Every structure is written in structure tokens, then in C-alpha cells.
């Protein structure tokens, strides 16, 4: 795994253009295709990762091909190493002390907030759900000591404050073990 991967997201309002854009992006540069799928309502999301230069090249190609059907785009160089495992639901969390759930209206804002949160505080990303059965919304869960969770949440909020895309954030100190089993 790349220690400091770069991530690019392209979201389009056309499935057909989305598939074409995806094909062109992965042909353009050696990137890892993390996601390429429909999201609600009738949009298409492409998420790639890898070394900065190839990801940027792929991202620029995605913008070029997506053109007038782009909904949202994001290029995040030097993303935190916890992001990709959380997106792939293969992160192994430590013992859950406090739990935070951070919910956004968009995929890009969840990625930005999650990246800022884990860069700011000593927390662990458990899971990051990107618009999968969520009507286009996204969320991620974090664990760590309450003070660290609060600092992480503040950093996440600050990172997306200009986007007006925060739905809700909840912090649960010492969550019930039944809940922990469902989120980890």
C-alpha cells in the first residue's frame, strides 16, 4: 500500500458518461480503481488512488471527459493512509473507546472531512460509506479517546465548512457493545 496515497473522485449525472470517463481515466495513467458504480439518484461515481502524478493525470482526464455532466470532483494529494482501508471496509479498529459518526451530503465532503479528522487527532477510521444506498449521502465512523474524537470532529467540520454539506455528527462515549459489533 502507498503510505501517502493521492485520491481522485469524479461524480457524474450520467451512468453512460460515467463508464466512459472511468475507462478513459484508468487507461490514462497507472492508478488503482477503488470504486466505479452507480449512486443514487442515477449518478455515477469513480474513485481512484495511487501515486500523486498518475492520479492527477487520471483526474484531469476525468474532468475533460466528464465535462458538462460533472456533478462533483475532488483531487486529494497526500491522503491519510487510513482512508483507503476504511473505504474498502477492511480497516481493523482498535478497542472502541468513544465512537463518532460523521454524516455528509456528498462523497467528496466525507473524504475531505475524514482525511482532516485522522490527520488532526489520534483516532482510527473504522468505516467510510460512500453513497452506497444512502441517497447520495456518505458517512464515516471514528474511534479513539473522547478528547481526540472531539478534536477530529472539529477538524472534519472545519475542512468542509465552506461546502455546507454537513448533515450531522454524533459522538458516543463508551458505546454499547452491541452497537460496536455492528459498526466494526
What does this structure look like?
By secondary structure, the protein is of the alpha+beta class. The chain has 2 domains: 6-76, 2-Layer Sandwich (Alpha-Beta Plaits); 83-183, 2-Layer Sandwich (Alpha-Beta Plaits). It has 6 helices and 8 strands, in the order βαββαβαβαββαβα. The protein has helices spanning 15-28, 52-66, 83-87, 107-120, 146-160, 177-183; strands at 6-12, 32-39, 43-50, 70-76, 98-104, 124-130, 138-144, 166-173. The strands form 2 sheets. The protein has a 4-stranded antiparallel beta sheet, with helices on both faces. Strands 6-7-5-8 form a 4-stranded antiparallel beta sheet. α4 (107-120) packs across α5 (146-160). The longest helix is centred in the N-terminal third of the chain and has 15 residues, at 52-66. It is globular. The chain starts with 5 loop residues before the first strand and ends with a helix.
